[in-house]
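Practice problem 4.
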């Protein structure tokens, strides 16, 4: 089968035209932290498959969890029925977050939609406050709280609900910003259902890191004005920032939390929206129910992934990645075409002055034996926690890409 030609003829890839302007590459195997292409090349995966495969690929424990569950049942409807993998997972997530009510969804975007529904249904109000620079997903409710100017959804701006946007939180403590934030919340509190933010790290909206004091202040403002706080932890959850959840940096608990991506270790699509007892009791019947809600295969592998996370020294691994990224990218700041270099936990970012030539950068890093997927003005990495010495290859590839900026 000529897979690439058939792909070009029929497949629509994410954030791409058909056929895509940037070539796609056929993967035939993934194991550990490496992807094997059909032409025999091996690439260190610096993306964790969009930040999900925190344990790497083809992990025997995760494989076995899927096999074991497959022998019992692959799926059963969740309306009127239940099963052990989903119940065990909900219990684990409730214990880990302090949020006792768990609604299982099928993707991060759906988890955000459910969170918004919860806030609207509980309060009877239909506006949200968020900050610029955010990204919360590609469905309509989620798109409406993504950055309205520099985000990827400006084409739909006329069709989206209009929410309230505060300025992007700064990287360091900033009294003037906190005062502006308080004034903005107070001005709109009467019409708001909730505040929704990504804790500490804004992901696909620009890979921006902000100081936990601003998140802590949002918790205080939500309490002062009787608003809900929704934490979108889809990208930040399960250790990526150096804490188990981004909210832990600020020592706060939201009223509603969204989880996804790394929840199943990158094996199957699964997400969750968690909330407090007060929120659940106030809502009563929540009018949402995905067909594949609580899928047993996904729930089983998610439980196995949480077991692995509990057993492995992920804090030390993430701290080691942070140190390796800091050292490996130390020669990039100040290069022509580079605006900023930043590292937090297992996240390393080179922000460029001009938009990245994705095809050129992708070819260059692949020549160094690394898989990255730059976008906008960002060359970044979120490697699996077990990347080990291969991290040096990742930072060398990123450095080479940065040095090539502006050259023919």
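Answer key:
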């Amino acid at each position: 089968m000529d897979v690439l030609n058939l792909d070009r003829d029929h497949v629509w890839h994410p954030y791409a035209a058909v056929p895509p302007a940037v070539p796609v590459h056929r993967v035939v195997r993934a194991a550990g932290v490496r992807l094997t292409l059909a032409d025999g090349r091996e690439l260190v995966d610096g993306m964790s498959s969009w930040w999900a495969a925190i344990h790497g690929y083809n992990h025997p424990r995760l494989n076995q969890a899927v096999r074991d569950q497959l022998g019992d049942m692959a799926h059963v409807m969740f309306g009127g029925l239940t099963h052990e993998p989903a119940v065990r997972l909900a219990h684990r997530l409730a214990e880990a977050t302090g949020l006792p009510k768990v609604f299982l969804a099928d993707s991060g975007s759906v988890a955000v939609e459910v969170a918004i529904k919860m806030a609207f249904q509980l309060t009877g109000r239909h506006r949200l406050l968020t900050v610029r620079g955010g990204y919360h997903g590609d469905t309509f409710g989620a798109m409406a709280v993504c950055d309205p100017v520099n985000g990827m959804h400006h084409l739909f701006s006329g069709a989206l609900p209009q929410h309230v946007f505060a300025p992007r939180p700064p990287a360091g403590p900033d009294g003037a910003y906190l005062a502006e934030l308080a004034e903005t919340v107070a001005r709109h509190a009467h019409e708001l259902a909730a505040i929704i933010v990504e804790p500490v790290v804004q992901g696909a909206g620009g890979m921006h890191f902000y100081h936990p004091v601003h998140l802590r202040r949002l918790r205080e403002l939500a309490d002062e004005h009787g608003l809900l706080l929704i934490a979108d932890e889809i990208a930040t959850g399960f250790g990526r920032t150096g804490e188990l959840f981004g909210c832990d940096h600020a020592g706060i608990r939201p009223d509603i939390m969204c989880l996804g991506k790394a929840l199943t270790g990158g094996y199957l699509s699964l997400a969750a929206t968690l909330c407090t007892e007060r929120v659940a009791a106030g809502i009563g019947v929540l009018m949402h129910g995905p067909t594949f809600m609580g899928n047993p295969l996904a729930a089983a592998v998610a439980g196995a992934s949480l077991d692995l996370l509990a057993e492995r020294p992920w804090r030390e691994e993430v701290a080691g990645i942070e140190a390796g990224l800091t050292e490996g990218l130390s020669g990039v700041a100040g290069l022509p075409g580079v605006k900023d270099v930043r590292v937090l936990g297992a996240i390393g970012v080179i922000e460029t002055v001009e938009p990245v030539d994705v095809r050129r950068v992708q070819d260059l890093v692949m020549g160094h034996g690394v898989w990255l997927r730059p976008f906008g003005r960002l060359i970044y990495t979120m490697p699996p926690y077990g990347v080990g010495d291969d991290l040096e290859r990742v930072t060398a590839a990123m450095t080479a890409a940065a040095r090539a900026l502006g050259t023919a």
